């Protein structure tokens, strides 16, 4: 990913928080020289102090799993809020653009065993079912059905070996244009625009403090 210096995010706490809040991403690899990608929920896990991994799972019917445990480097992509930035919001410049946040995580994978796979699923279900009124727990699933489903998936662990993070948030604009972009995004009012505006506000305040 091309990441200009002024868009580059190097604060691991910010990057980790973004991954945790936007865990539905793309797992990308190659097979026979052809890129392939799977859209799946993934979890950032601190395996030991300062050492992070990505956990996820795919169907065994998806042949991408056959590369788990190989020497191939995988890429996990996380992205969420994005917003079109109209040039009419600037004082003089007339070139429009797009603001967004994207994180790329590179690393090798290993295939998880049955016990690790069940723990992965338990953590995933607890996270997304936990806030629901009648949330389901893994323990609610019949043992035979759960075992059958675990056999049908390939769970993996991706080592966080290398990270690229681009937080493209008009950092190259002067204050007047920057504030104008925020105001117009707020006026649009959709979820993506509001999220980008909030992130821009937080960052400019942090830079001034």
Automatic annotation (TrEMBL):
The keyword Hydrolase is annotated on this UniProt entry: yes
UniProt KW Lyase keyword: no
Keyword terms of this UniProt record: Hydrolase, Protease
Gene3D superfamilies to which the protein is assigned, alphabetical: Electron Transport, Fmn-binding Protein, Chain A
Residues of the signal peptide: none
GO biological process terms on file: proteolysis
Sequence intervals crossing the membrane: none
Superkingdom of source: Bacteria
GO molecular function: peptidase activity
PANTHER family: PROTEASE SYNTHASE AND SPORULATION PROTEIN PAI 2
UniProt protein name: Protease
Lineage: Bacteria, Pseudomonadati, Bacteroidota, Chitinophagia, Chitinophagales
